[in-house]
Amino acid sequence: MQNDIYQIKKVLKTSGREFSYYSLAAMQEQGFEIEKMPFSIRILLENALRNFDDFAITRENVETLLNWKPEASDKDIPFKPARVLMQDFTGVPAVVDIASLRAEAARRGKNPDAINPLIPVDLVVDHSVQVDYFGTEYSYLRNMDEEYKRNGERYQFLKWAQESFTNFSVVPPGMGICHQVNLEYLSKGVIERNGEVFPDTLVGTDSHTPMVNGIGVIAWGVGGIEAEAAILGQPIYFIMPEVIGLKLTGKIPLGSTSTDMVLTIAELLRKFGVVGKFVEVFGSGLDNLSVPDRATIGNMSPEFGCTVTFFPTDEKTLEYMKLSGRSEEQIHLVEDYCKANLLWRKGDENISYTHVLELDLSTIEPVIAGPKRPQDKILLKNLEPSFVDALDKNFGRKYLKPEKQIKTWLAEGGSQPLNESKPVPEEIQIDPKIENGSKSVEVTIGSERFTLSDGSVAIAAITSCTNTSNPFLMIGAGLIAKKARERGVNTKPWVKTSLAPGSKVVTDYLLKADLLKDLEALKFHVVGYGCTSCIGNSGPLPPHVAKAADEHDLVLASVLSGNRNFEARIHPQIKMNFLMSPMLVVIFAIAGRVDFDILNEPLAYDSNLLPVYLKDLWPAEDEISQILRDVLTPKQFESSYSTIFDGNEIWQQLQIPKEKIYQWEDNSTYIKEAPFFKDLPDHPKALQNIVNARTLLVLGDSVTTDHISPAGSFKENSAAGSYLLSRGVEKNDFNSYGSRRGHDEVMIRGTFANVRIKNALAQQEGGFTTFLPTGEELSIYEASKKYKAAATPLIILAGKEYGSGSSRDWAAKGTFLLGVKAVLAESYERIHRSNLVGMGVLPLQYKNGENAASLGLTGTETFTITGIAEDITPLKELAITAVKENGEVFNFSAIARLDSQIEIEYYKNDGILQYVLRQFLHKS
């Protein structure tokens, strides 16, 4: 049928070629106020106009976008991204699901090849490298070897998918972080397909996908469930967003960095409240921000709570595209298309935003964030009192500043491979001292001696795409290392250091600048090209540090240039985690502690016992800029990305099956056919009310997807550990939860198993609950089995911002498999709420600021939720009856957070993929 309903299809001439496109300028000429719309809304409008079919995308959808108003709307709109980005932790379960859909289609006699990505999918293997080896030249190669040993089966599966599916490519391990690779290489700005041009758009299975907003690309993180639906041709539906304008003026002052800027913005936007909203950046300050600066902001959109933080295309975009090696034809296409189609930022726009927030960049001071949330900004000058306050507030310790007499450590810097199975050397002695509740421990290794205390830095990691994509910050870190070498000071012996660049471009320009050797002299050797500490793959602490931490409950700290610092995410033995620029990571590794006045106290003493201060090592802005001009050229990008899909010799030699249907191995503990689609009934069952449900967990505010579905290591006495031991897997081969996301038996046992999760129904911290019928305290998994055996439905009670953090589909899948029918929370983070719906779990929201405490709910009640079976509608108010242990009956109501009609369809079908499979089977 004719889908150009407004007759706006035009021809664009560029670089001697002609393309068709849907003209927003033509819509403006027809009287629609396109130029008053935020740029981000214009891109959504173009998407709907181009994909209109009057079925999945209707005229009403288009008109909803055309009539965008700054005020909130409850109408849903569709979005068909041009492509999908995945990383391996979230990508493997997505590919398992698609392979499982194929298997079910084949069992039903359908053509399995019809289950195939309909849009391009790029999967970057970046989340599996762990820092086992550090501080040596061989660290990178040995970590890579360990990575393949641990993950060979997963990588074979991904390589099979690359060969079996069309429109599916894999960037092998050791090449970079998905977001930096996306920014530097994969993103086109404007896409040409079948003679038509349109804005580059995508969704990604990692919440930091908005990093590419910095280059003018609309993109955001979704759960693997939503991504799979998009891959299979389904639009993504969501409520028409409000758009908050972030007006930037001025310029970042000397001494402050783009990291300081982004952490300041995190606090600003979180305080205002932008969850589920779009943020669009404008103002004269944009002229002073490079694309890497902008991408640093876009990257942390999930930390702000918003869906995107969008930067419209302008001259800075073209400068970056040229620098990063894009072709002249592509750069001309981006410029000509955006200028022709009202998508080019001139700087004098008159756009109507829902609300405008302003930030004068010249007011930004050096900051860090922590100790457990990215939005908790701390002025660098206030770090010491902030640490003292957090130590008292979170751990009940009155701080007494210890003397830190630093001697040397014979095996400093990780000159031996370290892992959990390595015994602590007998010559190590650990003597605790406790004064006024504050703890310090003297560690003796033979004749060597040093002191660890509350506030000692155990991990210093230059990691994550947030900052390693920014050449200014990385050159700055290298210069600090150089100046430290010149003063004869080093990192402290107890600090586990690591450098994990986001792409090989970073090491290329550090080598060219002759600064990599300085970082390596301070033991910041390259440990891998991946997320490492930011995702929790920090690897084990050195044995003496781990022993001191475990036996004496030290409050150790990590410093990292990442974007996440939630409890137990970085390392289970580290209790305070601080985000900062790569430059400050080097500084704190030299200091070895966070409990001091960094602006006025010395970081260290040189060989002549002269103090070395922060100001002695901090490079001048001109010094950094001059080096950048000398070393950063398009050749670095072209060289690094010319072999991006090749992989190393190990990858090339991986043997894979040739069948289109994956041959599942019964003895595998990594890859298993998903249980959601086997023998799926042709039609969904009628919706039922939830009757006599019990509560599995009672949780507080800011429960993250890390709490719900941890990605890091786990112990043998955990439910997942016990399962693997029963399957003959040795403890040293457990790997991590993240690496085993292709196996539901492991992941269901890991759901709500974070060692720091606090469930009010359990005495123990970590994945435990009370089985209410008997009062016994069990693991979450064991309690779930008992409730299932009794056919008892389960619910979860939670507070504000439930499900914040990474976009983990297993946080919803595991919840579903545990038998949870509904979650009742004060508010949700966007992605997790959507994922719950996508798995057939009902998200409920308290009304009018109520919560469990205000309603007197303890979780020991029996709950019946009605109104589900009777004509469920978007955002319907449901009646809830709670029966207390003494028989008292209490009634209240909550909002069903099924936000659109299509979400109701997903819920009716027990999930979005079940809906897609049924649609496929019916059409076939």
Structure description:
The structure is a single chain. The chain is α/β, with parallel strands linked by helices and 924 residues long. 33% of the residues lie in helices and 19% in strands. The strands form eleven sheets. Strands 27-30-31-32-35-34-33 form a seven-stranded mixed barrel. The chain has a five-stranded parallel beta sheet with strand order 6-5-4-9-10, with helices on both faces. Helix 5 (139-164) links the parallel strand 5 and strand 6. Helix 15 (471-486) runs parallel beside helix 19, helix 26 (744-750) crosses helix 28 and helix 31 (901-908) packs across helix 32 (912-923). The chain is globular, with a radius of gyration of 27 Å. It starts with 8 loop residues before the first strand and ends with a helix. The relative contact order is 0.11.
List the helices and strands and how they pair.
Blueprint: E1 9-14, E2 17-22, H1 24-29, H2 39-51, H3 59-66, E3 76-79, E4 83-87, H4 88-107, E5 121-124, H5 139-164, E6 168-171, H6 178-186, E7 190-193, E8 196-199, E9 201-204, E10 218-221, H7 224-231, E11 236-239, E12 243-249, H8 258-272, E13 278-282, H9 291-299, H10 301-304, E14 308-310, H11 315-323, H12 328-340, E15 355-360, E16 367-369, E17 377-379, H13 383-395, E18 428-435, E19 438-445, E20 448-453, E21 457-462, H14 465-468, H15 471-486, E22 496-499, H16 504-512, H17 516-521, H18 543-552, E23 557-560, E24 576-579, H19 582-591, E25 604-605, E26 611-612, H20 614-617, H21 621-631, H22 634-641, H23 649-652, E27 690-698, H24 705-708, H25 719-726, H26 744-750, E28 768-771, E29 776-779, H27 780-789, E30 794-797, H28 809-817, E31 820-825, H29 830-838, E32 842-846, H30 852-855, E33 862-866, E34 877-883, E35 889-896, H31 901-908, H32 912-923
Parallel strand pairs: 4-5, 4-9, 5-6, 9-10, 12-13, 12-15, 13-14, 21-22, 21-23, 23-24, 27-30, 30-31, 31-32
Antiparallel strand pairs: 1-2, 3-11, 7-8, 16-17, 18-19, 19-20, 25-26, 27-33, 28-29, 32-35, 33-34, 34-35
Helix pairs in contact: 2-3, 4-7, 15-19, 15-21, 16-22, 25-26, 26-28, 28-29, 31-32
